[in-house]
Amino acid sequence: MSDIAGAKLTFGVASGRTLKWLVLGFFLVFTFVPLLWLVLSSFKTNLELTTRPFALPEVWQFQNYVTAFRIAGLFGLFRNSIIISFASTAITVLVTSMAAFVFAREKFPFSNVLLSLILAGVLIPIIGLMAPYFRLINALGLYDTRMALILTYTGINLPISTYLMHGYMRSIPGELEEAAVIDGATFLQRFTKVVFPLSKSGLVTAGTFVFLFGWNEFIYALLLTSRQQVRTVQFGIRHFVHQFFTDYTAMFAAIVVTIVPSIIVYILFHERIVKGLTSGALKG
Amino acid sequence: MIVRSGRSWFWRAVFLAPTLALFAMYFVYPLGFVFVISTLEWNGITAPAFVGVQNYLDNFQARQFQFALRNNFVWVAALAVGKISLAALVAMILARQPFAWRLLRTVYFLPIVISQVAIAMMWRAIYNAEYGIINQALERMGAMHLTRNWLGEIATAFPAILTQEVFYIGYFMIIILAYTMTIPESYYDAAQLDGANVLQQERYITLPMIKPILITTMTLATAFALRHFEGTFLLTDGGPAFRTTVLGLQLYKMTAALDYGHANATGGTLVLIGLALITVIRTTFGRRDAASDSAQ
Predict the structure, then answer these.
(1) For residues B58 and B154, what is the distance between their CA atoms, to the nearest angstrom?
(2) Is any Cβ of chain B less than 8 angstroms from the Cβ of A281?
């Protein structure tokens, strides 16, 4: 009897294990295979794409990447994306860390209401505000400029960045500041000499989020810019289909190039990204 | 808290001013703008005329808008229910720390940092009727009759777009996993001693414990579903015959056509649906949560 029960249990455990690895394997395949196909195809000739879709490239066509840079104007796209992403990241983390400092360290009437209001911005379907943003940018005379996107990305990221910075600053013990105040530190010095330097890893987390948002953003780049000179990488990709026409593998090369910076940021900062996502989550 | 330094009122104001000014510019004013302009007939140039709820009525009677509305609700179900269930399943598996779980966690998250635009372009190539990998695989397996123009046919276009988004679970999986791993080990040890198997442990310990984070991620997924744009814009541009369109895409087209009244009525509808759905999720699950607590 116990033998049969034991065999049943073993069978149950074994099939459970198989099922577990089937699930994990499926998501691994779904994550990797399309990307792998894209990268391999970007090194093939257009003929090979249809004749040998599942094989490695016969001769690795590095030429596709040269073509990609030339046809898509990738240098210009990258320059704009870098300027816009870095500028909006710098402004966002500076501005929101100042506000977060006041919210985390000073008590004043309605401070909680004000903070909750800003944080509630995370839940607004921001795409619904397309028309007012379009109007706002036109009214400011910023249509079709990099500044339009820098300002807009900063605005959109205020809630998430304030949230992350506030959470981080609240976790810094107050004693250090109290000691600084006894030594005669002013409000400004408490921020510049104590809290801001101590918030470095909070800044990196918030900064990574804002940077990736800016680098990957598409809708407002589409709506607020049009000239080739100010196009970002993501907005540029939209034109690949026309630019490359039938040169599919060179287009794949161009897409691969646009993905590389995101992956580099991920490799460098994935600990921070995970921490940023989970620090909020743990509060429910 | 802390000691009051003399001119702190002045400095507080200085520190808050940029954030508050930008918040007013990008959230307060736009929300007001959306609801005010949605009651006007206006092209942004000539004098606006007040039309009440007419823009909303026009929208709801238009076929494209009806498709968009229906599709957005399907997106909400696909992400808030489908994607979150899959993410929770994988999180529960990884929380037991199987072989290479850290590596798997890192890999599953990778597509999330890649832009939705690049992901959409990749899937556009995968679904392509001539050189796409799906049709090529079917041909080589001798299933020629199954090949089709995935994004061009009404029957397959919408499921194709949904598929390329639902299975990228990394974002929510990481959040749920981190929460799951805070459940004390001793709960499982106790259950083990009582003879509970793995499935029973997950059902009666993990699931009830992670309910708060499931509600949070469902709320986020709902917001993402209503905000969906890139995939549809690049894969089908709403076609064939508006069968894949979403409210965000309709809104973009109306804004680009300077039809501010209808655009803002669409935007207003999106914001209101968002608030309504989030309230529904919070109250439904929140109540059950409280009920199960008091039952114990």
Answers:
(1) 25
(2) yes
Q: Is the pLDDT of residue A9 over 80?
A: no
Q: Please give the model's pTM, rounded to 2 decimal places.
A: 0.88
Q: Are B217 and B171 in contact (CB under 8 A)?
A: no
What residues in B contact A223, CB-CB < 8 Å?
Answer: 252, 255-256
Q: Tell me the mean pLDDT in the region A222-227.
A: 93
Question: Taking CB atoms and an 8 Å cutoff, what residues of chain B touch A24?
Answer: 90, 93, 98, 104
Provide the pLDDT for residue B3.
Answer: 47
CB-nearest partner of B1 from A107, A216, A252 = A107
Question: Closest residue of B to A258, CA-based?
Answer: B118
pLDDT in tens, B47-60: 888 998 999 999 99
Instruction: ipTM value, please give it.
Output: 0.87
pLDDT at A121 over 50: yes
Choose the closest CB to A178 out of B3, B130, B213.
B3
CB of B245 within 8 Å of any CB in chain A? no
